[in-house]
Task: inverse folding
């Protein structure tokens, strides 16, 4: 346990790093020490703005005085190698999702962190959005009984910023199941409280046949208890808003849902309709994620999501990509 602010270094200061930087600006428990990027001018620009050190290499950042923990915001392909490098330097790690691009890679990073007694958290940021937390609160209250079916659709068009982006290259991103699919499948596993044992996926190249990833993707999950989930993500829609999402969780004695039109989280219960919690994916999502990471690194709270669920998200993504390639249902290991 420590009451000193956790010193943070950020690797990779592209798009998502901005959300982490914003969270760091207001945190009292963590302090930005340094950033690095292979494009060193990018790191320097950010460092000038944020008042921290800038480096052009990961090794320099890891050697910088005061860096206790690292937030890794680099493309998916780099996660496994950089994860090991950060842990070998004795730093706690908040790795952006997905943990790695293969089940074996995810397990090797998870085991490395456990062996070294370091905190490893994966940025499944949707767990920290107001809507996701409100749905979880409804489930935890017992108001809908045992959750049996999840449908989560996120069709807001936030899948990639441009045609040259690495996200569109499956060799760099792992494919859409790894890149954005993990957000949805992790929510389903979290709300249902168990890990999937079967995966069936289908996809379309909705925007262009030239795409190498499926921009429209549906992942169906089966769970050992008999519960199931449908996760749908699309760039093919004309989005009605960046936060466009439809979520329904059906339980044995009630239903909770969140519609895209920002009515908030609604629960249909025995005694009628109830509105639950605030709405939307606010900047506070990353504030909550950072708080959670710092609390875990300082020994004040458990890691969220548990590492086993972050590894499971990779198992599901790999199974989903296999299902897309073969057209078959893919079975995955039993719950950890
Ligand atoms: N949690 C979320 O909601 C969310 C949203 C978007 C992206 N992400 C994840 O964040 C990560 C980054 O995505 P992005 O959209 O910010 O990408 P990006 O391309 O905008 O930024 C990546 C940055 O990393 C730098 N970089 C690449 N390799 C590096 C290396 N070896 N060492 C140092 N710097 C390196 C690049 O120069 C670039 O500045 C990905 O893993 C992605 O899946 C998460």
Result:
């Amino acid at each position: 346990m420590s009451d000193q602010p956790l010193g943070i270094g950020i690797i990779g200061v592209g798009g998502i790093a901005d959300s982490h930087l914003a969270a760091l600006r207001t945190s009292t428990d963590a302090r930005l020490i340094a950033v690095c990027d292979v494009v060193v001018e990018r790191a320097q620009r950010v460092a000038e703005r944020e008042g921290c050190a800038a480096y052009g290499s990961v090794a320099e950042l890891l050697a910088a005085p005061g860096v206790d923990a690292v937030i890794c915001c680099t493309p998916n392909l780099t996660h496994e190698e950089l994860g090991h490098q950060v842990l070998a330097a004795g730093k706690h790690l908040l790795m952006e999702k997905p943990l790695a691009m293969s089940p074996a890679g995810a397990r090797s990073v998870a085991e490395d962190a456990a062996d070294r007694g370091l905190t490893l958290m994966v940025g499944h940021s949707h767990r920290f959005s107001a809507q996701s937390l409100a749905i979880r609160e409804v489930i935890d209250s017992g108001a809908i009984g045992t959750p049996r079916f999840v449908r989560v659709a996120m069709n807001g068009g936030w899948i990639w910023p441009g045609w040259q982006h690495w996200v569109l290259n499956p060799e760099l991103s792992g494919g859409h199941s790894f890149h954005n699919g993990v957000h949805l499948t992790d929510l389903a596993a979290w709300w249902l409280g168990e890990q999937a044992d079967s995966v069936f996926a289908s996809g379309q190249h909705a925007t262009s046949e030239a795409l190498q990833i499926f921009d429209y993707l549906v992942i169906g999950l089966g769970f050992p208890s008999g519960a199931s989930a449908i996760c749908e993500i699309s760039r093919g829609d004309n989005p009605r808003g960046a936060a466009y999402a439809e979520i329904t969780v059906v339980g044995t004695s009630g239903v909770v849902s969140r519609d895209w039109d920002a009515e908030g989280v609604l629960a249909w219960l025995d005694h009628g309709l109830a509105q639950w919690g605030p709405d939307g994916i606010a900047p506070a999502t990353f504030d909550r994620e950072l708080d959670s990471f710092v609390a875990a690194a300082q020994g004040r709270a458990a890691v969220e999501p548990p590492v086993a669920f972050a590894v499971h998200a990779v198992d599901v993504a790999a199974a989903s990509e296999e299902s897309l390639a073969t057209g078959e249902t893919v079975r995955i290991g039993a719950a950890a």
